Amino acid sequence: MRGRAVLLLAAGVLLLAAAEPDPKSESVHVVKDGETLGGIANRAEVPRVLIAEANGLKEPYALRTGQKLVIPRRRSYTVKEGETGFGIALDQGVPWSAIAAASGIDPKDPVKPGQKLVIPTVTKAAAPVPAASPAPNPSPSATAAPLKDTAAPKFAWPVDGKVRRGFVAKVGDKPWHDGIDILAAKG
Prior knowledge:
Blueprint: H1 2-19, E1 28-30, H2 37-44, H3 48-54, E2 68-70, E3 73-78, H4 85-92, H5 96-103, E4 116-121, E5 163-165, E6 181-182
Antiparallel strand pairs: 1-2, 3-4, 5-6
């Protein structure tokens, strides 16, 4: 009896492990209720700016349950003598701005021989999520209420100051920084 219980428990654990894809290896993630782009990015170990860019998301990055997000995977590239960022981008088929963002460098800065770059890759396009149900047609006698501006607020800088540290993509075991640090007076 005890052996049977252990076997059932082991089978249950295997089923649970198989049911949830590993966010570090999946190429498409289906958004679950309550998930945020930042949370998905942290579990996938991919900067959220790359996921947003790969899926055409605009701030404030509102996600819908069931929405499919492409998780861009990365590969590294070592700059050779005489190469430029734009030349590497052309050879790799990836925009230079995406390579610079993934590598945590300023796209205006020249690359140097031996420098390691992160080349973001997308394995397949995200499928659009169909609407839950069509909107009902208003009755002909109904009058339209004036529309309110419900647009989400844009990003506002918390303080005036120089960006000290920008986004840094994770490469291997190196730490990454999914935000910015701004130099400003204390207080």
